[in-house]
Design brief:
binds zinc ion; globular; binds hypoxanthine; 331 residues; single chain
Length: 331
């Protein structure tokens, strides 16, 4: 089974680039930029990676972002992820980044986007990995912050394909961001939102009805609402599921309880992704491997999940077809 997972070319659709910052690189960048981290060693830092919920993780994640200062830092961060993606036979990746977590620290908007874009562009040429970048709004901030940032995103629309919504979910329902999402949709951006990770099925419904999302990030809790689940399946709206994240943030208590099989049985277009691999214990193939072992995924189910990763991507249909054909030539 692990050979199959390794062998299949796949797409990754839910990965926060700041969440791929490994402790080793964090310390290296801190040193390079003369930043004092509150932890004395990598082991001391790693000991903090034991979370009870999303917020406990986010507090550590935002603190880690402080070492990212220059365009080269963002380049190095992206390059490190791309090397892992290559090892996992990822051939297309759609990554998130959080512009506000950098602009709020006084890092100009173009520093992050230019560094990230240059790395992904180089990787496309040198590693053959295609990519899209999705800029996420931090939902714990007021919508006005997102509206204030939006012109910067528009200015860089040649590098940014889509808009997302992430950070603390509870108490920050999608309805809070209708204005900025309506504008983004009007301007032709793809739109996605984290919904139903910790928040209720109602938030998933709002993301669909009020934000008109093209994909749902996580979406686990839609399963609490039978009608909503059937509607999502009927529409073919994809879910970007993140098993190790679900385990580490206690969305599921044990990987054995992960609802992936239920999602597939209900006809949902589920995909497998790593979310924040440096914090949650594994890149995309590790997510497939641990999930497959825990719930007993069949080869057919793994194949379907990988197939879904291309179907649910924002690649043009003609390119999707090429990837799907290559996949079918193997399976
Ligand atoms: O897993 C996550 N959930 C919500 N927001 C995030 N921002 C980075 N990772 C996450
Ligand atoms: Zn996420």
């Amino acid at each position: 089974m692990n050979e199959l997972i390794q062998m299949l070319p796949k797409a990754e659709l839910h990965m926060h680039i700041e969440g791929s910052l490994e402790p080793e690189l964090m310390f290296k960048l801190a040193k390079r930029n003369g930043i004092e981290l509150p932890h004395q060693s990598i082991d001391e830092l790693k000991a903090l990676y034991d979370f009870n919920n999303l917020q406990e993780f986010l507090d550590i994640y935002y603190q880690g972002c402080s070492v990212l200062q220059t365009e080269q830092d963002f380049y190095d961060l992206a390059w490190a992820y791309l090397k892992k993606a290559k090892e996992d036979h990822v051939v297309h990746t759609e990554i998130f980044y959080d512009p506000q977590s950098h602009t709020a620290r006084g890092i100009p908007f173009e520093v992050a986007i230019n560094g990230l874009y240059r790395a992904f562009d180089d990787a496309q040429e040198q590693m053959g990995i295609s990519f899209h970048i999705i800029a996420c709004f931090l939902r714990h901030l007021p919508e006005q912050d997102a509206l204030d940032l939006y012109p910067e995103i528009l200015k860089h629309r040649d590098k940014i394909l889509g808009i997302g919504l992430d950070s603390s979910e509870m108490g920050h329902p999608p309805e809070k961001y209708q204005q900025v999402f309506a504008q983004a949709k009007k301007d032709g951006f793809k739109v996605v939102a984290h919904a139903g990770e910790e928040g209720p099925a109602e938030y998933v419904k709002q993301a669909i009805e009020l934000l008109q999302v093209d994909r749902i990030d996580h979406g686990n809790r839609c399963l609490d609402d039978e009608i909503l689940t059937a509607q999502i399946a009927h529409k073919g709206l994809a879910l970007t599921v993140c098993p190790l994240s679900n385990l580490k943030l206690k969305v599921v208590q044990d990987l054995v309880d992960h609802p992936i099989k239920k999602m597939l049985k209900k006809g949902l277009m589920a995909t497998i992704n790593s979310d924040d691999p440096a914090y949650f214990g594994g890149y995309v193939n590790e997510n497939y491997r641990q999930l497959a072992a825990a719930v007993g995924l069949t080869e057919d189910e793994i194949f379907t999940l990988v197939e879904n990763s291309f179907k649910a991507s924002f690649l043009p249909d003609s390119i999707k077809e090429i990837h799907l054909k290559a996949l079918h030539a193997i399976g």
